[in-house]
Amino acid sequence: MGHIRLSGNPVIDVIVRRSARARRLSLRVSSLDGRVTLTLPTSVSEREGAAFVRDKEDWLRENLAKQGMPVPVAIGATVPVEGVPLVVRSGAGRSVRIEGNALLVPGPEERVAARLKGWLRTRARDRLAEASDRYAAALGRPYSRLTLRDTRSRWGSCTHDGGLMYSWRLILAWPEVLDYVAAHEVAHLAEMNHSPAFWAQVERLYGDWKPSRNWLRKHGHELHRYRFDD
Asked: What span is annotated as the signal peptide, if there is one (predicted)?
């Protein structure tokens, strides 16, 4: 895969991929994280693809503006932690820390995104483990393991052998949203379905779950805007 960069404010990076099955050029903006992908048939040159992208630039910017532009994580960027927007600043010492409305990240500037991502994953594991332990104890059913991923299609899952998986990006959301996802997945330890009995378990563990589920449906895609690896 290659890429095309459109200069401007902001810069737009377009991922280029070729497909033997494609019959025409197509441009797609992901509704999850705003990634832009250009698909080229094998017979079309990358130069023609770049011209196609430039021709669609106004359309691209309009669509990206509607859903929120991607946020490259770097010094000066604003990143939410447990729902609270914090400005990433250069910090001293050895550990990432929150100070007022700033997120202080030590080390060289080129390592800020990776270091902050590691800190957020650790914080997410701690919070999700605490919530999962609490709900599993209330349910009376232990889980077998807890793993974190950067999933784009789901916020959590529960396997038949009791394994819980969560998106680490839940640490960017409000704590009650993270707690809802933990309660949802732990409830699957008792009900491996989405029947009325399952939702009754969620309500017993968590309370009124609808506001948090609705928040994720409306705003969850925003958590994927933050780019730590680009």
From this structure: none
- The model carries a pTM of 0.76
43 lies in which domain range?
Answer: 2-69
CATH number where 152 lies = 3.30.2010.10
175 and 145 in a common domain: yes
SS (H, E, C) the chain: CEEEEECCCCCEEEEEEEECCCCCCEEEECCCCCCEEEEEECCCCHHHHHHHHHHCHHHHHHHHHHHCCCEECCCCCEEEECCEEEEEEEECCCCCEEECCEEEEECCHHHHHHHHHHHHHHHHHHHHHHHHHHHHHHHCCCCCEEEEECCCCCCEEECCCCEEEEEHHHHHCCHHHHHHHHHHHHHCCCCCCCCHHHHHHHHHHHCCCHHHHHHHHHHHHHHHHEECCC
221 lies in some domain: yes
Domain identity same for 76 and 41: no
pLDDT digits (tens, 9 = 90+) for 174-194: 999 999 999 999 999 999 999
| Residues lower than pLDDT 50 in the chain | none
Q: What is the domain count for the chain? A: 3
